[in-house]
Amino acid sequence: MSQSPSSPSPSDSDTLGSRENFFDVENGGYQPTDADEETVGHVEKPGITWESYVAGTILRQNPDADLYCPVCAYELPEDQQRHVRLSDPEDYVPPAEVERQRERRTPDGDSELIEWTETRYTDHRRHRYCPECSTIVWGGILSDVPRESFLAVVDEVLAAVGHVPPGRKRDLRDAADARKQKGVSDQSNVEQLLVELEHGLDD
Fold first, then answer.
1. Of 34, 50, 82, 173, which one's alpha carbon is 20 to 30 angstroms from that of 203?
2. Into how many domains does the chain fold?
């Protein structure tokens, strides 16, 4: 992982899921903002920052992390809200079959109606779905993972940034561990770690 923005080629910059988009700051991509105040639990924030995008992508690669249905968690009546684990991303949105018809002239000058079925694909991406409300989801609410698993993610992030002195790595790890034990969500925690890697720890 590098702190320096890379400059993707035009052919890569718009690629769906391209990792180069993590660092596409110069082209108006995921602009970093001032660090948000620490928050306990999951909160909904308007827009997305570079740190948020990268943190979410890193944490989704953790095999211990689950994704929950946003509809069941937020959009049901309050007394029915719950966390329901989404399916694995194994299915595609089924293609739609559309009945088409048109009229054409025959060599005899008569008209005839031609009918056929046209298959239309709605989206090429695999999706997750909620087993309880059947909502199709691209994304979902990222769950927190146990402390040991989270610190392993922190260690991977710090190891990927080769220029950080060992003493500062220990301080950054300890700060992330302290936030974890205070109840800060994993995504907010990794976002703050990325901010601290760029700007340093707060006094």
1. 50
2. 2
Q: 95 lies in a domain?
A: yes
pLDDT digits (tens, 9 = 90+) for 147-167: 999 999 999 899 888 788 889
Shared-domain flag, residues 148 and 128: no
- Asked whether the whole model's pTM tops 0.85, one would answer no
Cα-based distances in Å from 201 to 10, 23, 124, 125, 173: 36, 22, 42, 39, 11
Task: Give the residue ranges of the chain where pLDDT is below 70.
Answer: 1-48, 90-94, 121-125, 201-203
Give me the residue label for tokens 């080629």. 9
Q: Which two tokens stand for residue 57?
A: 């992508």
Domain carrying residue 53: 20-32+47-65+144-203
User: Rounded to whole angstroms, how far apart are CA atoms 140 and 167?
Assistant: 36
Do 117 and 163 lie in one domain? The reply is no
